[in-house]
Amino acid sequence: MRTPDIKAMQSRISHSGFPLVIDGQWGPKSAAACQNYLRAMMPNPHPWPTSDDVSLIRRFGRPGDESNLVNLSVVGLGVKYDGKDCRTIRCHKLVAESLHRIIDEISGSVHASILTHYAGCYNFRKMRNGHRMSTHSWGIAIDLAPNWNGNLAPWPSVATMPLEVMEIFAREGWLSAGAFWGRDSMHYQAST
Question: pLDDT digit string (tens) for 155-174?
Fold first, then answer.
């Protein structure tokens, strides 16, 4: 993102009760304030488990158990995969209603074009460079706009995922990797 974009985010966060110096520089203080800002938007009690394997299995069952998956209709919401209209997203049945509300809200926002770069939800696989199963293996994670928000691209200095999209996910309790890990800002997951 450009310096004016980062300043606008810092101002938005600061005016919401998380004071920041509005200087266009994204460092540890800006990152911590952003995380606190997004956490404050999340439902209380939080609807999703922590991301450790025991908690995920207790809530969502075994990764790769396709009997827990549903085809969430996204017809008319502008979701595209590889440039083609996407009619459904395969996700866990327990996150389907929440994910539909998120996609519906993004679809009606100024950031609707993010949905034209949908990059997947359910994918039975291990984490990149890891031994644990990815949250995609439960169908509780979604990737959007990977070309501008890749796994190694630092957010917000390089990656361009809008804070407003992160806010939409946060209001449903979904964690934004960009805000909470500082990278992989295409990734959102239903966990704390």
Answer: 999 999 999 999 999 999 99
182 three-class SS: coil
pLDDT digit string, tens, across residues 13-45: 999 999 999 999 999 999 999 999 999 999 999
Residue 172 · residue 101 · CB < 8 Å: yes
Domains identified in the chain and CATH numbers = 1-41 (no CATH), 47-189 (3.30.1380)
Q: Distances in Å between the alpha carbon of 74 and those of 7, 92, 99, 115?
A: 34, 15, 10, 10
Half-sphere exposure for 84 (CA within 13 Å, toward CB) = 3
Least Cα distance to 122 among 162, 93, 79, 102 occurs for 93
